[in-house]
Structure formats: C-alpha cells, structure tokens
Design brief:
Blueprint: E1 15-19, E2 21-32, E3 45-50, E4 59-60, E5 71-81, E6 87-94, E7 102-110, E8 119-127, E9 132-142, E10 148-152, E11 156-158, E12 161-170, E13 184-190, E14 197-202, E15 214-219, E16 225-229, E17 250-252, E18 261-266, E19 270-278, E20 290-291, H1 297-317, E21 332-336, H2 340-357, E22 363-368, H3 371-379, H4 391-402, H5 411-426, H6 433-445, E23 468-475, E24 487-491, E25 495-498, E26 503-506, E27 513-515, E28 518-521, H7 528-535, H8 543-550, H9 558-561, E29 564-567, E30 570-571, E31 584-587, H10 591-601, E32 607-610, E33 617-618, H11 626-631, E34 649-653, E35 675-679, H12 688-700, H13 711-715, E36 721-723, E37 733-737, E38 747-749, E39 752-753, H14 782-797, H15 800-818
Parallel strand pairs: 21-22, 21-35, 22-23, 35-37
Antiparallel strand pairs: 1-10, 2-5, 2-9, 3-4, 3-6, 6-7, 7-31, 8-9, 8-30, 10-11, 11-33, 12-15, 12-19, 13-14, 13-16, 16-17, 18-19, 20-26, 23-24, 23-34, 24-25, 25-26, 27-28, 29-31, 32-34, 36-37, 38-39
Helix pairs in contact: 2-3, 2-4, 2-14, 5-6, 6-7
C-alpha cells in the first residue's frame, strides 16, 4: 500500500511494507601485529562490537593480555532488518587498569556486502606498513517468524515500537503503618527506550498501583532487557549495563508474552509484574511526523487559494487582455538575506515598493533569515497585512528602532528573563543563552510580553491572502565546522522539517519529544521570540567561522578538524552491490588533536531542541534516493550511524553561519518557483552570498541560473540585475537587488530629481566605517531609519521595468511548457 503520511492522497513517496529480518552472525577471530599503545607494556587487546541498528548494547570480547597477536574466537548474534542500512562498528581497544582504555582504531563494515546463506571470513588490512590485520567471520541467514511491518520514505525507516508496563504491588499486613524507615525504592531501566530509567518508591504516597504502572516505550527489534534494581541493591553504572547485583531480576523483553501480565519477582513484601504490548504502527496515520518529500496538504491547499490572488494581480500589473489560467500563473517568491536591524528596516522599504507596484500580490512565498525574520513575524500578526499599505507597520517598527534600548537590561526585565527561562526549563526544554537573546529581542522590538506563536500565522495564510512565510536555520554538529556539517531546516506556520530526510512535524509540536515518529511528550509551543533568537543567533560562531570571514577555505585546518578516515583493503573481495558503503578505518586523534579540534569547532552557544528524528533508521538505499542526494553535502552522509537521527537534540543556528541566504526552500522542486526576487541586505560584499549560492547549487546539482557579472559590475553594482536562467532549463528567473545607494543620491523618486535642499537626504552611508547601519547596531536615529526605508523602497520602484520583464518572461515560459 502506498500512502502519504496524512493518508489523504496516493503517492509513491511513503510506503508501508512487510520486510524480512535476518540473523547476522559475527565471529571475532583474531588480530595480528597490533602496535604497542602503552610505553611500558604490550597491548591488552579486546574488540568492541556495535551494531546500533540492531541493539543498544555494545558487546565486547575478553581482553587478551600482553599480546600483539590476540585470538578471541568469540561469536555475537544480531537480528537485522533487511531494509535498514546496517553498518557494523568493530573497534579495537587496549585495556588499561588506571587510565581510560586506548582506542586504537575502528573498522566500519557495511552488512549489505554479505549475501544471504553464505559464510565469509574477512581480513581487514588496518595498517599496510605495520601489517596490522583484523580477522572476522560473517554469516547472514534467514530467521524464523513473520516479516516486520515498516514505514519508509526511502531515506528514513520507522519500525515497530512496544510499550512495557511495570507494576509493583505491595503486600501489606493487617494494621501495618507506613513509616519513613519502611520506604523501598525500585529502579527500572530499559536501555535504548524513550524513558530510559524510572524509579518507584513504596512505603510513601508514591505507591504505584495497577492504575499507574511505570511505562517504557522501546523498539522491539533491539530486543532490550529490563534491568531491575531491588530495594537495598546498588544500581549498576550506566556504562556497565550487563553487570548486575545478585538478587536483581533482569528480563529479556522479547520473552514476555504480548498482552499478558508476567510475574517477574515475588517477595514477602511485594510482587513485581510486567506487561508488553505492541503500539499502533500499521499505518502512517499513526505517526506523529510526516514522512515524505512532497508539500504538506495545508501548503498544497494554500497554493490553490493563493492563485486566486496572484492570477488577477499579474493580469493587472502586466496589463494582459485575458485571465491567466492555472497552468499559466507563475510562482513568484520574495527572498531576503540577513543583516540585523539593517535588514529588518530595509525589508519594510522593499515590501512597500513592491506593494506600490502591485507585485506584492503576485508573490506566493516570502522567505527570511536572521534580521528579516523579525520583520516577517511582525507583519504576520496582521491577518491581512499585504492587502493594506504598510505605513502603519513601518511607523510601529520606527518607534521600536529609535527607542532607548538600555531599559532591556533593567532589573525588572532581568527578573522577567529569569522567570521565562525557568518556565522553559520546567517544560522540559534545554535552555541556552540563545533563549535569553530571544527574550532581549522581544524587549527591543515590542512593548511587552509577546504571546505570538508561529502556528498563529496560519490565520494570515488560510485564505491565501498573503504570501506563505518560510523561515530558515541550519542544523549543525559538535566537533564539526559549518562547512563540514550543516543541514537545512525550514519553518512555516504549518510545519517544521528537514527536506534532506523528508521528515516534518506540525509547527505546534516543534520542541516536543518524539521517538520513532511518535509523539512521546507534548511540550507547549514556543513563543516566537525564542524562534527569532534561534533564527538570528549571532552568538553561535566558532574560531573556524571567524577564519572563514577572511579566507575562502578551511584546508589549512582540516588536518585538525576532520576525522582520519581511510578506505581499507579487505580479503576476500566481495561482489559489488548497489549503494553499498566501502569498508573504512577510523583512526582516533590524540589528546592534543582532540583539544585543538574542540578549540576550533566549539561554538560559543547554540540553540537546542528535542530531535523529532530520534529513533528513525536510515534506509538501506538512502544514498540512492534522489531527494537525499540533492541536499546531502556533509562529511557524515556516508556514516549512517552518526547522522541526525541518532542525536538527542537538534543544534540549530542562524543560516548566515553558512550562507547568508534563505533561498534553499525555494529551490525545492516540489514548490516549482518560477521567479525569485533576491533582496540582499548583507554587509560588505553584496555579491558574495549569491556567488556562494551558485557554487553550492552547482555542486549539489540544483537548478539555478548562471550569475554572469562583469568585473566592472562587481566593482560598481547597479540597483538590479536580471538573470533569466535561459542557459539552464528549469531554473528560476532571478532578480537580484543589492542594497546600494546609486541613483537615490540624485533622485528622491523615479524620474524626480532632488533639489539642492534635498541632496543631504540622498547621502546614505550604508557600509562606511562611520555608517549607522552596522549589523551589530540595535538603535537608529529617526533620520537614519527613514532614509534606509526610503532607499530600499526607491531601489524597487526604480527598477519596475526589469521586474515586469521577469514576470512576462515567466508567463511566456509557462504557456510554452503547456504547449
């Protein structure tokens, strides 16, 4: 059956299927010529065996003392899902009694190399010079039992989860009284479950009866164990989950009959029961995330409604004789860049200029990042903002831009900030300095507490009356630079998601806790000021970002900041299969390398939200998925165990830490954008972000018009450039508006020259050393604010001809495509 996640229309992007599981046998045989890690002794080697797609546990062989050619001959078994990308990690360690065990190397082996029903013995050549070698035997066999039902979009796989209920029933004697001394604490742990560890206290008011059992949600395929610590026993260390105190029952959960109560332990004072049941998972309707690469139903509905505004608006501005048919109506998008208060202010002017030309009603999308998200979130409080003139909104923003900002650090505000941060922490969020920055922004841009939320903006687009707003951020990782790891994240009033993985959640659920696509804990939706803080997180820089401001490459630092990964030889050479990963060797850096890497890549602070991809697994063919390949560009894309679905939190930063552009959501083929108005508000080079976008799209195979600017133009930019994309069929038409002060110096409006007394108003210093428009400036004078609004509005109005030319070309192309 092929369904979309809402189950409302047929699609081939998300499917439910029955898929076989196999039994993988891993026999760690021996190693040869292992180099000495300790100065005073030979290596005491053992091998850690980890397959995270099959088990939460890391298994290990015994340690062989003082031997460079250890022999283990130990066997491990895993139940694996055939549709999941299973990469086995074999890590060799040197055991130390006093210090931490030395990690010598890790071999990554793709199970997809194995053939069903065959046994192979692999020799991994780990170091050709020292002739280090690891010998491992593998076998892949059918396994008894029914196939597993999975849900997949070709990149991610959602698997069956179960719910375990653990119940303690206290046996009380007659006339027995409760006392503090009779308290009994039970500790329960299911490794890899959503809940992790739960405690139950008996002999107090916290008695768990049959109506309130302790619950654990876990993936059945991992076949975890319920670890029980009884009263008076010590809880085992979290890193030693297979070492227990005698007398504590530990039960393999797959041995509990489904739907039946099972007695785990009986005692004079209590009985311990457990019950395991399957959770609903037979349909995408039971997932609380949307798996798919198409547009959500709400956005598709919006596009139909918006066309009713766009088609007559285009007919009017282009002075067409006939109404535009649906297939003739181009999708026009307004795209902005960041720039702090400068971009907030300039966007108001640009939008007022587009409104006066009638082009604002022709736009279907409006995207932003950093400072322009502040303007957008202000505008979308008004359900009909684009149907009115913008003078009221511009005047309101002027009041806040010119007010004294010192009050934001008053004792009253500091108490308010602390109260709000404590409330977020109580809700279960991980608060950071970015949340405080969001609260400061709220005080800078509003008169008091702002209860507006992103999902509230649905009122402003439900009838198609305004362009659909899209806000952007990037997801990053610790220990990696932004150039090495970044993933695009988009926010709309309907949903938040990562297009690379094809996974989205409702906007009101963003920040809540998920497991395997199911909503586990609902957290109240954030007020939009906290999202604004994250969208414009000026404080998420690191040393490498500062380096990149003055250099175009990180090559000088890669020896310190990139993992040492090498493809290695293996014997025998197995037949090549589609989308299999090469066997690779990871050599860990030393203490100095780790410390230096952290110093270079650690970010000052970062916004963290619960990861709604948590628990998903990568599909066996994910690297062959065209949607994933379009957006994959990180150094970890071929390491499925380390991609975002394995993280507890998303780490989100301002998109400007990669490229100062919000264009990527518009290049999603499903949105079919025909014209992009690129409104640039960057500091410094006005062309840099556009050049970076062109380079990125070329590397990723994303259709984008060729930007061909002469050296003369690059030295002295005009107010607008039209790149029609004629040489790149399928690419959108691009209108590029750099933020410059050109003819505005002599003209106060198109065709209206300034008088001598008005010449001073045309002297707008945008980027000089004494400019009032620095990215880090938070307060403008009234004159500075008014001049920037007027300049950005003028630059739009003065290029009406180019705008109309782009729209006419788009309409003509739509008609030609239909023919």
């Amino acid at each position: 059956m092929w369904l979309n996640p809402e189950g409302e229309q047929w699609t081939s992007l998300t499917k439910i299927q029955s898929s076989l599981c196999y039994l993988l046998t891993v026999r760690v045989i021996r190693a040869r010529n292992i180099h000495q890690a300790d100065v005073l002794s030979q290596t005491d080697c053992y091998v850690s065996v980890w397959l995270p797609t099959a088990s939460s546990d890391k298994f290990q062989t015994k340690a062989i003392k003082n031997c460079k050619d250890p022999v283990w001959n130990e066997t491990f078994y895993f139940r694996i899902q055939s549709q999941v990308k299973n990469v086995l990690e074999l890590a060799l360690y040197d055991k130390d009694v006093i210090t931490q065990d030395d990690h010598l190397f890790t071999v990554y082996f793709d199970i997809a190399k194995l053939s069903l029903g065959e046994e192979v013995f692999m020799h991994f050549k780990c170091d050709s010079q020292r002739q280090e070698e690891l010998e491992v035997g593998f076998a892949l066999d059918n396994i008894s039992g029914p196939p597993e039902t999975i849900i997949t979009n070709g990149v991610l796989v959602s698997r069956k989860i179960c719910c375990l209920e653990v119940q303690v029933v206290e046996k009380k004697k007659k006339n027995e009284k409760k006392s503090l001394s009779s308290k009994k604490q039970f500790s329960f742990r299911v490794q890899g479950s959503y809940e992790g560890t739960q405690d139950i206290m008996l002999g107090s008011d916290l008695i768990f009866s049959s109506s309130s059992p302790a619950k654990f949600h876990y993936a059945r395929y991992k076949q975890p164990t319920l670890d029980v610590t009884l009263p008076g026993k010590k809880r085992p260390p979290s890193l030693c989950s297979r070492v227990y105190d005698i007398g504590s029952p530990n039960v393999e959960l797959h041995s509990i009959p489904s739907g039946e109560n099972m007695i785990l332990a009986e005692d004079k004072g209590f009985d311990l029961y457990a019950k395991a049941e399957d959770c609903l998972c037979s349909s995408p309707d039971h997932l609380d995330v949307r798996l798919g690469f198409d547009l959500c139903v709400q956005e598709q509905d919006f596009l139909c409604k918006r066309r009713n505004y766009v088609a007559p608006a285009l007919k009017k501005v282009l002075q067409l004789q006939q109404d535009l048919l649906n297939h003739e109506t181009p999708v026009v998008a307004i795209m902005t860049t960041g720039g702090g208060m400068r971009s907030l202010t300039a966007l108001y002017g640009s939008l007022r200029g587009l409104k006066k030309l009638g082009v604002l009603d022709c736009a279907t999308y409006l995207t932003g990042l950093s400072g322009t998200t502040w303007t957008m979130s202000n505008l979308y409080r008004d359900a009909d903002w684009s149907q009115k003139d913008l003078d009221k909104q511009i005047s309101e923003a002027r009041k806040h831009m010119t007010k004294c900002k010192i009050n934001s650090l008053s004792l009253e505000y500091l108490k308010y900030y602390k109260k709000q941060l404590c409330q977020r922490k109580r809700e279960g969020r991980r608060t950071t300095f970015i949340d405080l920055w969001g609260l400061v922004l709220e005080s800078l841009l509003h008169d008091g507490k702002d209860n507006h939320r992103l999902s509230d903006q649905q009122r402003a687009i439900d009838h198609g009356q305004n362009p659909l707003p899209i806000y952007t951020a990037v997801n990053v990782k610790n220990n990696y630079s932004t150039l090495d790891f970044k993933e695009w994240v988009e926010f709309t009033p309907y949903e938040v998601g990562l297009q690379k993985y094809g996974v989205f959640v409702r906007t009101e659920d963003f920040g809540s806790e998920f497991f395997m696509g199911r909503l586990m804990k609902k957290v109240p939706e954030s007020r939009i000021c906290f999202l604004e803080g994250m969208w414009s997180s000026l404080f998420s820089f690191n040393v490498l970002y500062i380096w990149n401001l003055s250099h175009s490459s990180e090559d000088f630092w890669h020896r310190w900041t990139r993992d040492q990964i090498d493809n290695i030889e293996e014997e025998p050479l197995l037949p090549l299969k589609l989308h299999e990963l090469q066997t690779r060797l990871f050599t860990p850096p030393g203490l100095l390398g780790n410390a230096f890497r952290s110093a270079l890549t650690d970010r000052l602070c970062i916004s963290q939200e619960h990861n709604f991809l948590k628990g998903f697994q990568m599909h066996n063919d994910y690297l062959g998925n065209t949607h994933f390949c379009r957006w994959k560009d990180t150094v970890l894309d071929t390491f499925p165990n380390q991609l975002t679905q394995s993280d507890e939190f998303l780490s989100l930063v301002d998109t400007g830490f990669f490229i100062n552009t919000s264009i990527m959501p518009l290049l999603k083929p499903e949105r079919k954008v025909d014209v992009i108005l690129h409104l640039n508000y960057s500091a410094g080079s006005q062309i840099q972000a556009l050049d970076q976008t062109c380079k990125y799209c070329s590397e990723q195979g994303i259709l984008f018009p060729r930007v061909d600017l002469s050296e003369e133009d690059r030295k002295k930019l005009k107010e607008c450039y039209l790149f029609d994309g004629a040489e790149t069929p399928g690419a959108p038409i691009l209108l590029f508006f750099p933020l410059i002060n050109d003819t505005f110096q002599k003209y106060k409006a198109p065709g209206q020259k300034r008088s001598e007394s008005e010449m001073e108003d045309g002297k707008v210093d945008l980027y000089g050393c004494c400019s009032p428009y620095s990215t880090y400036s938070i307060q403008y004078t009234e004159k500075a604010y008014d001049r920037l609004v007027q300049l950005s509005e003028y630059n739009i109005l003065n290029n009406e001809d180019l705008i109309m030319q782009a729209l006419r070309t788009a309409v003509a192309r739509k008609r030609q495509i239909k023919k």
